[in-house]
Here is the input.
Amino acid sequence: MQKLRRTMLYVPGNNAGMVKDAQIYRSDSIMFDLEDSVSINEKDSARFMVFMALRTQEYEGIETVVRINSLDSGYGKEDIKAIVMAGPEVIRLPKTETAQDIADVEELVAAAERKNNLPEGKIKLMAAVESPLGVLNAYSIALSSSRLIGIALGAEDYVTSMKTKRYEDGTELLFARSMIVNAARAAGIYALDTVYSDLNNDDGFLRELNLIKQLGFDGKSIISPRQIDHVNRVFAPSKKEIRNALEIIEAIKEAEKNASGVIAVNGRMVDKPIVERAERIIELARASGMALNDDEEE
Amino acid sequence: MKIVKTGMAGTLESSDVLVTVRENPGKGIVIHLQSIVEKQFGSRIRKVAEETAERLGIEEAVIQLNDRGALDCTIEARLAAALYRAAGITEYNWEAL
Here is the structure.
């Protein structure tokens, strides 16, 4: 079954309460942050906190991700040394600009895996792109490693570098989002959108969610558990979409049985891309725990 | 690992613990605990602290824990951070934890 990555919840690595409670909100992934949410004086303490939490706490099937510091920050290498031993599912590299950035991290992760007798390749990687150069290199970054499961946009640094800011309609991010989602699709990995920081603006958040769903993103980094329901609701297929998808799958089965060629459902021709979309909707509905008519009838 | 100065880590926020470590020449490990759950978990918290210090090779230290309901892993993490800070060491032995 397709892994859902609709919501990746940021948890500041030095916040004991949030690290303790992160799993109770049931986001698809939890991202423990060692980078921007942790002050320079607390980098060591946050690293110990995330290390110990991952070693001892049960996250009940929720994907665990650690955002490390970049290698040139002076903290990234120690982050990798510790975090590989702690064993999250994914390490996320911030401020990725080139495929080489990922290659450098992969080399250190592989070395740490070997040193600790861990299966090589076990820990997956994710790249966050936060600069104009990173956006232009999105495709080569997306192809940079067989460990790479996704590519994410970090918009705050990006808009600053672009000499703009974030606007309600998101036009300033359209190019970056399109590049990232296109690169992800071409490489066969996940595309994750940036955070929406205004927790008191539900309308703006929903507008942004509908936009990124329309663009083809798999999900979004989120900064509060309050945002989880909104994301899940927007990304869930509607009952009508599920019904339609089931009809298409049924019609295809029927056509295969009868060895008939071109088929139509509700007066519309069904071809390969439509079948693929229908299959994706069913998969997403199943992964979201939604009831399917055919399952209910069985 | 030898304690050479005072080191602190953690906070007084809920679910956290503020750890202060000081030198204690010739007097072994002494633990002072203040906790909102001391009656139920006091002995457990002391044991976690003792074991963590032992794993990191600490033989002498005064360890003060001001606990706000921290999990064992939080106590271990904050104590480890405070001990390394107090020892002035930035080469970490992750295997020992």
Notes: The two ends of chain B are 14 Å apart (CA to CA).
